Structure formats: C-alpha cells, structure tokens
Amino acid sequence: MTGHPPGPLWTGRATNRVQWVLAAAGAAALALGIELAVDSPWSSGIVPLLMSVIGCLAVGVLILYGTLAFVEVTVTIDAEALEVRCGHIGLPRRRVPLAEVVSAEYVAHVTPHQWGGWGHRWRPDKGTAIIVRRGEGLALHLGDGKLFTVTVDDAENAVRIIRAHLRALAG
C-alpha cells in the first residue's frame, strides 16, 4: 500500500492478569527446586534428590515461560503485515503478511475453551490462534484456507483497517 508513512497503522493489546497467579506458582516450583539443590538434608540417596530438583526446576521454568509469554499480547498492523508479539519480550511472535489475507472478521466473543486453552493454539478444524483472555478478537482467513485468530482489544478497528487494505489491493 503506497502513500502510507512507515510505522504502524494500528496497535492493540490484550492482557490477562490471572496468568500472574500461574506465574507465581511457577516461581514457587523453581524456588523449591533451587532450595532442594542448595540446602537438602536428604540422606536417602542422590537419585531421589536429583529427580526432585530437576523436576521442580523443569516445572518452574515451563510454567513461568508458558504463563509470562501469554500474560499479554500486542498486535500491530502496518502497510505490509499484521504482527503479534506475546509477553514482555515479544516471544512467541507471529507475522502474517496482509498479501496472504483473504478476509478479516471481528469476533465478539472468543473463549479459551473454544481453542483448548490459553496460549498459542492449533486445532485442525479451526486453524491457529493466540488466546490470552476471553473476549473480543479478530480472525484472518488466509489464502491457503487456514484461519488465524487472536484476542485483542479494539479488534473491530483492526478489522476495518485490514479490510481497507484489502480493498486497496483489489482496486
């Protein structure tokens, strides 16, 4: 789309504060693993201690990453693509070139249950989604027949911008 200044045409966010509770559980598991490794009075052998330490550390890291990555999502639309960045460090990230979008629709009520939970989801009958909370979102129908859905505030305006871009490409 020519004639547009560089930079975002639209930016939206969605957050899920409940994920912080899960992150605290992950931090607690990580702390327990460290405590067991550093100050363990166990005399029953190294194997049970090692299994406990590794288990707590692994569970803690997985829960922390899985929750902190999906505490928030930032969606940016520029003249070339829609980009989704998750969490505070922006990972995972998904970039969808607007040239691959056939249509966009506003979805008034997306739930984690529809997609099998929070996070980056894939369902063979639906496509892929990034779900950080229940509520409004947008769905992109892609040229390869796949669907990409993301929960984001102000999704209706994002859909308007994408549709205007698609009309400009067609015209």
Please provide a written account of the structure.
With 171 residues, the chain is an alpha+beta fold. The chain folds into 2 domains: 19-68; 73-170, PH-domain like. 37% of the residues lie in helices and 33% in strands. It contains 4 helices and 9 strands; from the N terminus they run E-H-H-E-E-E-E-H-E-E-E-E-H. It has helices at 19-38, 46-68, 112-115, 155-170, and strands spanning 10-15, 72-77, 81-86, 93-97, 101-110, 119-123, 127-131, 135-142, 147-151. The strands form 2 sheets. It has a 5-stranded mixed beta sheet. Helix 1 (19-38) packs antiparallel against helix 2 (46-68). The termini are close together. The model has no long low-confidence stretch (mean pLDDT 85).
